[in-house]
Amino acid sequence: MRPYECSPTGVVVVAWSQLGMLRLLGYADLPPRTVAIVRLDDGVFIETEIVGLSGRESQLNGTRVQLAFRRLRRESNGNYCYGYKFTPIPPPSPGPLGADSESV
Q1: SS3 call for 90
Q2: What does the pLDDT profile of the chain (104 residues) look like in tens digits?
């Protein structure tokens, strides 16, 4: 088996909130988590948490996302555990009005 480096960007295929599941397990005080199936640009499908949404949870399907390294939790000994999640890629900002890309 050879190591394979997956693409760090992709598109959300389907997303859902895990609020109901967390409440059943006794974690009602935690904010809802948004989980998605992401199709990476190299064709690999993965299940991952989507973070940094700022209220856009309902319109995620088709959203471009990128890999992010985030803190996952704090262990009982005080150490932090880090891992990968995905964040939406912000749309490109428009250039100045009337600006020409080939201006002299």
Answers
A1: coil
A2: 999 899 999 999 998 887 665 566 666 666 778 899 999 999 999 999 999 887 666 678 899 999 999 888 888 898 999 999 999 998 777 767 655 555 55
